[in-house]
Design goal:
2 copies of one chain form a homodimer. Chain A is of the alpha/beta class. Chain A folds into 2 domains: about 260 residues, Alpha-Beta Barrel (TIM Barrel), CATH 3.20.20.105; about 100 residues, no CATH class. Chain A is built from 15 helices and 17 strands. In chain A, strands 4-15-14-13-12-11-7-6-5 form a 9-stranded parallel β-sheet. A 3-stranded antiparallel β-sheet of chain A has the order 1-2-3. In chain A, strands 8-9-10 form a 3-stranded antiparallel β-sheet. Chain A is globular and about 60 Å long. The N terminus of chain A is likely disordered. Chains A and B meet through α13 and α14 of A and α13 and α14 of B.
Chain lengths: ~375, ~375
């Protein structure tokens, strides 16, 4: 790996802080381009944002997408992707990519066999084969993928977990984070630390201290949206975010609904990812500015209106609800494509409007209005 | 329905006849635009060419697509489509559409209950509901869809069928064709007659006489590619095509492979449709200028080359065989999208090259060369 000619290939510029909340406006610079924050990252699990051409993802407004290390490691394999010129080249996406550590998937998908100081032994959900993941290997894989933003291997507990269990897990995550940082060998690839600590404020605080002590290019809140009540998630974000260094980006992993994005932006989060817009699209659940729509509903059978009158996406400009319902009922692939275009557009347009409203100093107004509208039909 | 202001909204211009074969170059004018012939029509069974945006289908070079009357009648229903402004508007395809009569699907998909002089009673393959299709209703449905080229309801026998059975069926098809023509009530919608007669030359000849006697805007050869040996299909096309009026387009229904398109163009056919490029794409069977590829094959695991070095389609310009294999193995929707783009492009590029070679008087050379190349790896 060669060093980038610029001194700081990765840096975060904090452009503005909202007066009425902790919301922040910024830009993240990576070796594959800039990311406007607050940012939402569409999920491209297996080297594709499901059903979309990469050009479409870009046109919809994505500055960055997320790739799943666990999935790509198992299939097609990181060495294959390295040989193909890295993940960007392989999947024809020439903009920033963040890869997770695979930790979450190892615990949620793989049959976990043994966790030790060294790492974790797990079985593939595809063929049951046995694999060893260590902090060092995790970073090596992400280097092979050519990720712009790599994540540390962590242990991600589900909710609820006892104080003692969470403390023990957190300490391991901190030791692993140190090993991840020591393994990183390129300035071109940024590395984020992950703050765990479950639903225990004292442990969250300690995690921030310990992880920030090691020092990373950005800080992620992990272990949230794993089954805990929404209020606990918000409470953890609210107390943790302001403890993080102001000059580094803050990433809330795996979150969330449009309401979550607004709430957590207000709490000082800069980056989000979630499968919700893409997965819901495949299930026919569509986001609109006047609430959610289940497109298979009989009420849309002869509905000439677009999905969302306020939306300017390709789907809303060209198709009726009646057509989208027909495609979905007939199990046509185009249903998934058009639904995904709309939902991803909805999320990315929301983020664009959030950024605009912070810029213009009307974030809280925007948030109140948006929430009022999407709750109209609930 | 109002008459188009032009006297002949539908007409065929025969531009050139090939010197070395019966191949013809022409243009078909419909109320939704022109079609260059020989033409291949991608199949859009359920108001979508599976997995493709209509703009993509157009960009790949399609002048016309085919819609399936049987499928659209059952779901979402032709009256719904009429209310939505017709099939073009419903599916956002503003170019010519040919609709089949549904006859073939009634015999192949629906449980046929009773065929009578009046029409055919059949059961839906979706929910088992009972339906009556008559020649009059078939045309009314296609009018509701707003098809540019409608097809007569026919009886389509499978192979083999006895002389007597074929003769009886043919006579019914001719009587039905007359009723279809009498029902047609708009100059905007052309109507093609269908020539049946199975594998019996005498009956094929009689079918041409009887159907041409009624007089249609174009003539289709039906009941081929239904299980008969390839030589019989070619023999039937060879003897039937030249008997059809020279000034009307000739359409070979449901055919075929790239080889078939070349062979039957040489025999005087102007229009083709087939599910092969789209269906094979979904199954990972890809056409290339050096033969067919099963993309799941392990030999493509680390293959950096595009599917087809000679192809200029979006898929070949941007992705490796290794990536396409990965997507296919991982059952990603994008696999189907990219494969379909390539296969449809392959078919439409073939047709473009066929037209160019007829224009330049080198059709037979082109054909020989093309066949030599695609057989190289067989």
């Amino acid at each position: 790996m060669t060093l980038d000619s610029k001194k700081e290939p990765f840096h975060f510029n904090l452009l503005k802080k909202d007066a009425g909340s902790r919301a922040r406006l910024g830009t993240l610079t990576t070796s594959h381009g800039q990311i406007k924050t607050p940012a939402f990252m569409p999920v491209g699990t297996q080297a594709t944002v499901k059903s979309l051409l990469p050009e479409t993802v870009r046109q919809l407004g994505a500055d960055i997408i997320l790739g799943n290390t666990y999935h790509l490691y198992l299939r097609p394999g990181h060495e294959l992707i390295r040989k193909m010129g890295g993940l960007h080249e392989f999947m024809n996406w020439h903009h920033p990519i963040l890869t997770d550590s695979g930790g979450f998937q190892i615990y949620s998908l793989g049959a976990l066999r043994k966790l030790s100081e060294k790492g974790v032994v797990f079985r593939s959900h595809i063929d049951g084969s046995s694999h060893v993941m260590t902090p060092e290997y995790c970073i090596a894989i992400q280097h092979a993928l050519g990720s712009d933003i790599m994540m540390c291997l962590d242990e991600c507990l589900s909710y609820p977990a006892s104080f003692d269990e969470t403390e023990k897990s957190l300490e391991l995550t901190v030791r692993w984070a140190r090993r991840c940082k020591e393994t990183k060998n390129s300035e071109r690839n940024a590395l984020f630390g992950i703050i765990q600590g479950g639903a225990w404020p004292r442990l969250r605080k300690r995690a921030v201290d310990d992880i920030c002590d090691i020092g990373f290019d950005g800080y992620a809140l992990g272990g949230l949206s794993v089954g805990e009540p929404k209020e606990i998630m918000y409470e953890m974000v609210e107390m943790t975010a302001p403890l993080c260094p102001e000059d580094k980006p803050r990433y809330l992993m795996g979150v969330g609904t449009p309401e979550d994005l607004l709430a957590c932006t207000a709490l000082g989060i800069d980056m989000f990812d979630c499968v919700m817009p893409t997965r819901n699209a495949r299930n026919g659940m569509l986001f609109t500015n006047s609430g959610k729509i289940a497109i298979k509903n009989a009420r849309y059978r002869e509905d000439k209106a677009p999905l969302d009158e306020q939306c300017r996406c390709y789907t809303c400009r060209n198709y009726s609800r009646a057509y989208l319902r027909h495609l979905f009922i007939a199990r046509e692939i185009l249903a998934i494509v058009l639904n995904t275009i709309h939902n991803v557009s909805f999320y990315l347009t929301l983020m664009e409007n959030i950024r605009k409203s912070i810029q213009e100093g009307v974030f809280e107004d925007f948030r109140r209005n948006f929430l009022k509208n999407i709750r109209k039909n609930d």
